[in-house]
Amino acid sequence: MTAQEILTAAYAKSLKNQPGRIAAESTELLEVVNRVMRTFFMVGARVNPFFFMSSAPVTYSSGWARPATAEAVYRIVFTLDLTQEVVVVPFDDLLCESLLPAVYRMGQVYYSAGNSADPTNESLTFYFSKTPTDVVALNATIDPLFPVSYKELPVLETAIYLALKDGRESEVASLTVSRDSWLNLFMAHMEHETMNERRRFGAPVPFNTASMVPIASLLAGGTSLEI
Question: Is the pTM of this model over 0.70?
Answer without folding.
Answer: yes
